Amino acid sequence: MKKVLVIGGTGVLGTSVVNTLQQQQIEFVIGSRSQVKKGSYSIVNQSTDFPWKRVDLATGEGLAEALIGIDTVIHLASAPTKIGGEPFEVVTTRNLLKALNQSKAKHLIYSSIVGVDKVPFSYYRAKLAAEKLIQQQGIPYSILRATQFHDLINFLIRKLLFLPIGFVPKQLKFQPIHVDAVSSELSRLAQAGPQQTVLNLGGPQLFTLETMTRLWMKIHGKLKPLVPIPTIGGLMKSFEKGENTCPEKAVGSKTWEEYLLENQERLS
Fold this sequence. Notes:
The structure is a single chain. This protein has 268 residues and is α/β, with parallel strands linked by helices. The protein is 38% helix and 18% strand. It contains ten helices and 13 strands. The protein has a seven-stranded parallel β-sheet, sandwiched between helices. α1 (12-23) links the parallel β1 (4-7) and β2 (28-32). The N and C termini lie far apart (42 Å).
């Protein structure tokens, strides 16, 4: 491995991946529509300008130029939207694959979500469709599915506790993982080479949403009644079954409690 292109390198996962590659002294370039700015809280080394290429996956603009001299591509750009009636995931992945076929890159790593093959949710179906495009294309690949990030669960709980009474679908299951654990695995895959398979990665603990919510309130000093919401619809029932989790693939990561304590001031 000589050089890595991180597409979507300015997002939550992207900045963590960039930090990891920087710490491991792996040469990389960020591909995104906007340039990462010095002074960002997520940037480890403030003294250097990060190598950056303007890439618009929605149109394919800039991809050919960004792929020059690249051996490995980490595809992190993601959105639950549509482009011309098609899912963002499908259009952007198709554009990337077309450009990769005309490049000398040797490995495509795609970041996906645990349960995309089971959970009946349009965004998950789009991620699965993107996975299938990659698998059918013939380009050497690795697909990493991860469980939900701590930040996402925190966002959900804050929404549920917005009113004086918290309405919580108590039995939904989650296996939260810290974003840095995912970026470490993506970096490992970049160095290991194509796996030609789908890999799962989950956090160290499996919780119900009720348990996570009560711990959130305890750490933040909040006290309010929780009213259970019935499990209705295929999406909620799928999360109740834990189809978004992979306890057999749990890894060492900051726990939910550690995350809350570490970010208590920022999250309050």
